[in-house]
Amino acid sequence: MDNVNEAQYWQQRYESDSIQWDMGQVSPPLKAYIDQLPESAKSQRILVPGAGNAYEVGYLHEQGFSNVILVDFAPAPIEDFAKRYPDFPTKHLICADFFALSPDDYQFDWILEQTFFCAINPDRRNEYVQQMAALLKPQGKLIGLLFDREFAGDDIPFGGSLDEYLQRFKSHFDIEIMETSYNSHPARQGSELFIKLRVKG
Ligand SMILES: C[S@@+](CC[C@H](N)C(=O)[O-])C[C@H]1O[C@@H](n2cnc3c(N)ncnc32)[C@H](O)[C@@H]1O
Question: In angstroms, what is the span from residue 38 Cα to ligand 1's centroid?
Fold first, then answer.
């Protein structure tokens, strides 16, 4: 399970096209969330960590969001994204370890979670919560989807439950929404939670 901490593991998965998590499209609940945002949100600074093929980043870009930062530590999907979106600012494409991003350098209005939490080693979940909180501006939000189920085996994706997430996030976040997503992709219907968490303090 430690291999998921290594960029090389993920790079190989992309190179061998072994990317079963990839939906090939923007996640419907996240599209719906983005679609209801006001025009004024389009200049907000947004992070999409562990973005992979980054359909959400592409969609935000298409909708005119101009300050979206894509982070992944595997170069392959970033290179692919850059080919698909040649007009996307290259300075917003960051090949780096999410856990190594310095909050002194990066502060966001909101961060989008999509199949990233389930990809990190479960031993790092508290570190994830702390790093997310550190990267958010005051009143900043963590928005996205978390699996509400367990998976067989000791491999990605690593599942979880509403109770676990409530316990884990409450140290750093106020839970505004954490409920079963009603508009998930059919393959994930009933098995993911939509979350909107506001950083404390
Ligand atoms: C399961 S994939 C999900 C990709 C994308 N969000 C999606 O839904 O298709 C997890 C992604 O997180 C990236 N990743 C895992 N750990 C990371 C870390 N510590 N820093 C940056 N990226 C990471 C992997 O390279 C991979 O692209």
Answer: 28
